[in-house]
Amino acid sequence: MTQHPDLEQALAAHEEAGIHGSRLREYIQDIVLGGNDGIVTTFAVVAGTAGAHLASVVVVILGLANLLADGISMGAGVFLSLRSEHDRALRVRKEEAQEIEDDPEIEREEVRHAFRAKGFSGELLENVVATITADKERWVDVMLHEEHGITGSEQDRPVFKGLMTFCSFAFFGAIPLIPYLLPVPDALRFEAALASTTAALLLLGVTRSAVTRERIFRGPLEIVSVGLLCAAVAYGVGAVLRNFVGLAI
Predict the structure, then answer these.
(1) How many CB atoms are located within 10 Å of the residue 243 CB?
(2) What range does the domain containing 187 cover?
(3) What pTM, to 2 d.p., does this model score?
(4) Number of alpha carbons in the 13 Å side-chain half-sphere of residue 207
(5) Cβ contact 190:165 at 8 Å
(6) I need a labelling partner for 61 at 20 to 30 A (CA). Which of 30, 48, 122, 173 fits?
(7) Which DSSP symbol is given to 40?
(8) CA angle 28-41-225, nearest 5°?
């Protein structure tokens, strides 16, 4: 077969870019989920207390408490969820391996049925079935995907992804509190928190769009819209409760 150096170099560069892109995309869900929830929930605390005209020290106390408690809860939730998926994948893998051992003809027919449904037929279908079933590990992998919908995502590292979610939550979630931790005039603190929160949401949205290669404006628009909507609700609740309860500031 004739070799084409330019084509091979282009293919190698394409594969290298795909590898790095997939590594980033692997964790973008954790970064966006943790970061967005961190910003929104912390700024909701800031907006609610600002709407109720509570003291700045109250904002800091409630904000930090939310940052730690909710961040740990989110990270632990991701860890437990992924570990459950991982355990299920291991259990099903053992079951499929045993079924192949006990009744290979039925399992081979299941492979044939799955690929016939994909449009394979005749000699090509038989070659595909023979190739897959020639290696037990490959056979099990195919059965996991075709019969149970289990892919490589079940092999994610639960501890690492849980830490990624927590770190993203803590990093982005701390941004709305910065004006309350710095010597900013009281009258400007909420406005500064609003501006820094909007900027952080924009950064998170741009990051999502860049990594997922979607339209550049889509990520920022969605994340900022949801974040500011939640903040507006929290501010309104704080203002209404202040008037309803008659809080003395």
Answers:
(1) 11
(2) 19-245
(3) 0.72
(4) 21
(5) no
(6) 30
(7) H
(8) 70
| CA triple 61-166-158, angle to 5 deg | 150
**Which has the closest alpha carbon to 18: 29, 8, 26?**
26
Please report, as a single letter, which amino acid is at residue 26.
Answer: E
CA distance 227 to 44: 9
Could you report the per-residue pLDDT of 115-151, keeping only the tens digit for each?
Answer: 999 999 899 999 999 999 999 999 998 988 888 888 7
Secondary structure of 41-95 as H, E, C letters: HHHHHHHHHHHCCCCHHHHHHHHHHHHHHHHHHHHHHHHHHHHHHHHHHHHHHHH
Residue 13 lies inside a defined structural domain of this protein: no
Say if residues 36 and 167 touch (Cβ distance below 8 Å): no
Number of separate domains in the chain = 1
